[in-house]
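Q: Given only this backbone (68 positions), what sequence would you predict?
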């Protein structure tokens, strides 16, 4: 997936990180899993979105890529 395929808010944060306005997080996989876990755990969010977050997090955890 390319940044151009993402929503406006993601593209905005991408530009801010790229310009140095926002901090870059070297352990991005860990950051993503923590965020997806927060979404999957939040019972105020729709079950459909929680399931999507859980599926995405599980796939990241099982992938062979690890943060250094």
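A: Predicted residues:
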């Amino acid at each position: 997936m390319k940044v151009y395929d993402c929503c406006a808010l993601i593209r905005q944060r991408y530009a801010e990180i790229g310009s140095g306005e926002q901090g870059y997080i070297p352990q991005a996989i860990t950051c993503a899993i923590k965020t997806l876990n927060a979404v999957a755990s939040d019972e105020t969010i729709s079950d459909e979105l929680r399931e999507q977050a859980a599926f995405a997090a599980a796939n990241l955890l099982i992938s062979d890529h690890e943060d250094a």
